[in-house]
Amino acid sequence: MANGGIDSGEFISALDALAKERRINKDVLFSAIEAALISAYKKNFGKTANVRASIDREKGTVEVLSRKIVVEEVGDPLCEMTLSDAREIDRRYEVGDLVEVPVTPRNFGRIAAQTAKQVVVQHLREAERGVIYDEYSQKENEILTAIVQRVENRQVYVELGRTEGVIEPNQQMPGEELSINDRIKVYVLEVSRMGRGPQVFVSRTHPGLVKRLFEIEVPELVTGVVQIKAIAREAGFRTKMAVFSTDPQIDAVGSCVGPRGMRVENVVAELKTENIDIIKWSADPAEYIANALNPARVISVFTAENEKSARVIVPDNQLSLAIGKEGQNARLAAKLTGWKIDIKSQSQVEELMQAAPFEEEEEPAPDDIDLDDVNLDDFDLGDGEI
Known about the structure:
Layout (H helix, E strand, L loop, with lengths): L7 H15 L3 H20 L5 E5 L6 E10 L8 E3 H7 L8 E5 L5 H30 L5 E10 L2 E5 L4 E4 L15 E12 L2 E7 L3 H11 L1 H5 L2 E9 L3 E8 L6 H6 L4 H9 L4 E6 L4 H8 L7 E5 L4 E6 L4 H5 L4 H10 L2 E6 H10 L31
Parallel strand pairs: 2-3, 7-9, 11-12, 14-15
Antiparallel strand pairs: 1-2, 2-4, 5-6, 5-8, 6-7, 8-9, 10-11, 13-14
Helix pairs in contact: 2-4, 5-8, 9-11
């Protein structure tokens, strides 16, 4: 830097190294330093001065230029210049032109180095925050490996690499106890710009976490041969996932389960023993609903398309299994399929049919009667008055 500053060659080398280390565009660094130089000049040589700082991108030399408008009569000497003074610099100047005059003080390099440091650091931080925000905003709806750092006010803070993530209480798996330095997989919900830098909100309960975990384990999901059609999850307890194969030769459920169940076991291990039901998706609602109630065996399914509701009949010994503990199996099946599901045992259906009253056929209403054709003497009307 000229005029008492650091060596120009060292200055450019330092910027190159800093830009590479922080992964920040070098032009951003130059702009930050030029802004700092303007701030330093105004602080020491006049707050109202209209100046521009310029750094040679190749040589590293610094120059401060006073910017003045050419006028016929000067009202503010800090911002204006007479035409005669302007033409001493260049005879081509006219009234209204902008003239830039070098005003770099001799000791400006030292003053700039002292004053600009904090401003440069601030700009670097802001630029780095922008880089981090751009990087992590592209990872929304993806999963990352996180390391638990601390737990404060029921919020879990995790290290995600270049920044920190937070798992809010409603995004934590019930019953899961996390310790410092635990390595876990998290699903990126949202990346927000905050005053102190980007805030990354991550989840352990989102169904997308299950989907992404299976994509890591199942190559057929990555190629698209096997597709995940729907996921219903009660985090920490049970998940139902409907899968479909575009190739009749490939078993979608078997692909996700894996040889000796290894693929699904790897996912379950990450979710701390959460039960996972993998079922075959079907375009036929009745078949899909029957599959969704797995592991229960279904006898028949009656659907009402208009109401998106279904009555399912199961064997007596399968009723509790179909409904599940506290209704969980039936609830997840309904959430997975998007249908209302009413489950009855075989004996319950038989009892309902037996208890239904016999409906007599209603006689048709007679046509209008012509009273002229009726002899009232044929009827005993009693002593009452008509």
